[in-house]
Structures are given as C-alpha cells and as structure tokens.
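Co-fold these.
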Amino acid sequence: MAADTPGTAGAIAVRVLRAPALHSVVAAVLVGALFLVGTGADPIGAYGSVVSGALGPDGIGSTLTTGTGIIGLAVALAIPMRAGLLNLGGDGQLVLGGIAAAATGLYSPLPAPLTVVAALLAGMAAGAAYAALAAVCQNRFGVPLLVSSLLLGYPAMSFASYLARFPLKEDGSSLPQTRRLPDGVELPAFGSSTVTVGLLLVAVAAAVFMFADARTATGYEIRMTGLNPRFAAYAGVDRPRLTLRLMALSGAVAGLVGAIGVLSFPYRFIDGSLTAAGHTWTGLTAALLAAAAPVGTVLAALFFAALEVGGLAMERTTEVPRELTQVLQAVVIVFLAARLNLTWRRAGKKSADAPEPTETKEVSVR
Amino acid sequence: MSIDSALFHSALLALTPILLAALGGAVCERAGVFNIGLEGMMLIGCFSGVAGSWFTGSAWLGVVFAALASAAYSMVLAVGTISLRGDAVVLGVALNLLAVGLTGFLLRTVFGVQGTFSDPDLAGLDGIDIPFAGAVLSGHSALVYLSWAAVAVAGVFLARHPWGLRLRGVGEAPDAAATLGVSPAKYQYAAVLTSGVLCGLAGAQLALGNVTLFSENMTAGRGWIAVVAVMLGRALPLGVLLAGLLFGIAEAVGFRLQGLGMPQQATDAAPYVVTLAALFLSTARRRRRKQPLVGASS
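Predicted complex below.
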C-alpha cells in the first residue's frame, strides 16, 4: 500500500494513482452507478446525497460516531491480518466485551470514573480471552483459525443474549436489555454531539498499531510472517505464540469497541444492537482493502463509515435503499482480490521459482 | 425428551440445505478450489428461489431460477480465483458479504419490503408422501430426496468416473494433470459451477422447502457449517453426509429442548458447539495419524 514507505509528494501521488485499492473503489462506484440506473435512480444525485449526507454539517458527527465502531473493528481485525491470520469472530468478541462492560458498570462498587475505566478494561479482557480461545483451538487442536474464530462467535452471541434476557435483564421492561448504567458511568461526549471519548480511545489503539507496525521489532516480525510464513519460521518466529498474542490483542480491541458501545448512548447493553450495524464485516472489509496496513486501514474504515452514513441520507432523499452501500463495499473487495493477484502473477512470471497459486491460500487460511 | 419420528424428520429438514451446499464445497475442494463463499451462494439461492416462485407462480421454476442465479454468482469466484489467481479466502468472504447486501437491496427494490418477504400466495415446495417409508423418511420435498441421490452420484462420480478421477487429479497435482493433457482450469470451473448449482438448490430448499419466505441473512451461518462439514467429512460425499447429519440432529434436538423450557439462546448455540467439538475430535485424531485436515494448511 502507498502508506508503507515515505517518498516525495509526487512519488506518493503516483503510487496512490497506481494503487489497486483506488482502482477497486472507482470500479465499485461505477458498478453502483449501474445499479442506480437499473433501478431508475439518478446516480449523480444519489452519490451527491451520499457525500453531502456523510460530510455535511449534519452528517459529520454521525460519520465519526459510526467511524468509532468501524475504525475500532478494522484495527482489531487488521492486527492479526498483518501476519496473515484471519479473525472472523469479531462479532462474538465485540458482544462479550459489551456485556462484560455492562456487568462491570452495573455492579462495580467503585466511584463512577473508576467504574468507567474498570468497565473498559473488563470489556477488553473478555474480548481478548475469547479471541485467544480461538488461537488455542488452532495451536492445540489444529482447527483452522478462520473456522474456529467464526464458529466460536455464535455461542458468544447466544451467551450475551442469554445474560441480557435473564440474569441481567431490566426488571419490568419488555425489551431484552440490561438496566441503564448508573449516573456518571458513561464516556463523556464532545459538546452536544454524539461523538464520545470512545473515538479517542480507538484513535489511540490505531496509533499504537501504527507505531508498533512501523517502528518495533515485533511489528517487523508480524509483517514478515504475513509476507512469508515459512521464512519467518526459519528465522525463529514462534508462530503459535505469535498467533496467541495477536489474537488476544485483536480481541481486546474488539472488546474495547463493545465496551465503548455500552458506555455511550443508550448506556446499556441491548441484545443484538452491537452487531446489528454489521461493523465487524465492514471493519474486515476495510482491513482487507488496505491489506491491513495501519494508516490505510483507518482511512478505509473512515471511507466506509462515510459511505454508511451517506447511504442513510441517500435513502431519505432519493429512496434508494441504503443496502446499496453494502453492495459497494463488497464489490470493492471482489475487484481488489482479483487485481491484487494480477500483480502477484506478473511478479511471479519474472522469477523461475514462482509461487504456485496454492501458496496464496496457504498464507491466508491460517 | 422423547426420541420420536418427528425429531428425526426435522433433523433431515435441517440437514438438507447444509448437505447440498457441503457437497458443492467438497467437489470444489477435490478440484483444488477452496470455497468459503457457500454461505453467500446459498443466500443468493434463497432470494432468487423466492423471487422465481413469486413471479412464475411455480415453486419448481423458483428452484430452477435459484440454481441458475447461484451458478451465475459462483462464476465470480471461478473467474477471480482460477483465471485471475485471486485469493480464494478474500473472494469468498467478499461473496458472502455481497450476497447479504445484494439480497437486502433487491428485497427493497423488487418486493418493496425490509427484513422479511412472505405471502400466502407464495408457492412453496410440497412434501411428497412415499408409501411404506414411514414418518421420518416420507413427506419431504423432492429436493430432500434429490440431496440423498446427489450424495450417491457424487460418491460414485469421484471414485469411479474418469471425469471424477481427472477432477481429483487436478486438485492434487495440477501440473501433472496439465502434462497429461487435462486442463485444470476447465475442471475447476466445472467444480465451482457445480457448487453454485448445489448451493442454489440448498437455498431453494431453505426458502421454499423448510419455510416459505425470504428474510435477510436467513442462511444464518449454515454456509459456514457446510464449510466445516467439508473439512469434517474430508471432502468425501459420505463423510459430508455424516457431518451434516450431526448438525441436523443438534439443531433438531436443540429445537425440541426449547419446547421443554430450555432458553432459546442455549439451544441456538448448540449446533455450532457440537460442530466445533466434532472438529476438535476429528482433527486431534487426524493429528495423531499425521493426516492433514482438508482445507487447512497449518
């Protein structure tokens, strides 16, 4: 990705224009326009309302609020992806983080500000422990991470749903939700907006990821593992240990996002509300788009957040269903998956010992 | 809880969509294409089955429509991975995501509803009464019986038919197959297309056989269970059938326990937990024997 190495402004511009990610986005926008024409809508008007709805004075706060969740999960899923590990259990880790934060917030005897900190930590711990479980499944039992993380997600969501409907349920309410958190147990918002300190927490997580990726030995180890697992193993990278640590980190960030969700409006855990927006898959898409490069992941996540919020505006003004934005996201990745490997294949042809196509599968399934 | 024929009847209902999709996945796996887009292909099958049935008034035309639409959809994976050498995992994830968006979008634009489309006039697949077959085996839609036949056909095809042998050769040693004049791409395209058709049938059974409606994301992880069934069954048709049956029984037992007062959340999770546990056991055993797990390279 263009963000990896520094260069002059001109060189960067050339790299950005050549980036497969940009081409995929342009291609997806064109496919979206075809859809709009197909349903009898005006593509320019529809896209215009997406942009004004997402970035206009009314939309920007909403974009940043949605962005908190998407950036958070994008960073969470990019961390293991950098080493070629796919964590598909983000929803489960997110929800467990949320319910752990809700339980801590409701029952902690500490004063309110400390309770907020405790709830955030509890959310991170719950997410981390659960994601680490998926890593253990791979390391100890040989169940591929892709499958173990994904399958573990469903019982986690059922468990949180059970807690919200029975032991932690608000008395007398007909909704599957916990009580409202006590006064003061909440993340402060900026002014009268819906943007909370949660955005800063996610930004810190992203900044730490950027720094670790670019400047630390561990970051180098991770990238090397992602690029060539066999070479990394030869160079002494303890793969199971790395998998465990990266998954725990990934789960911690996903759990943090869940905790932020509970500590923001409406200040309680509502069954299904954390996963309803589908931020996990959007975050995964953003991380894939940027090939898990830290800066690119955050930019892609912001782009998708804008697309999502703009999609709502488009639905209001032009009656085009907002699901179109979800189609756009997926089309970006479809184009990218093909484009990416066109360049790989070209690179492969140059050298005699070109990696056979099955190699790419090996890298990403683990 | 009593174990009776109704329990096994519903287990077979739960099995069918997974079995059809997993057979498709197994054929792909044998041809050397890792297909995790089963979930998305199935969802496309659900929607196009319902749309086809609604607009033609015939459930069977809906089934045909589902198979064709899902096959067309699977071509994205085929072109992406076989011709363009794209990453199968990334493409599969994208296809699953695209299917959710696409069916949601079309649900709004074609039917003008959000969430669920159901109508008393929507034609579903009728159950076929088979004399002397008993309450468990009789009364299912024709697709259920077709899925059992498909297991047998796939088994014989892969084990005996020259094309099946070539397909396995392509999956195991593409270069050697190419040297012998067998085009790997041709067989891989055929395999992905087959999985598309089977996933379309799986979706049609889910949306027109098990229930008669379409709701957003109604596959709810069944395509992923099918991926696991391919691994568990080591991409063998009979193995896939047994793995799918395990899930079907878990779902049916869970549903029954719910009727007896178990919280729905516990029983909802049961099939996934059972599948994961089965995966543990089989990989642990295979590890001792040092056999690789299908679809996994670790």
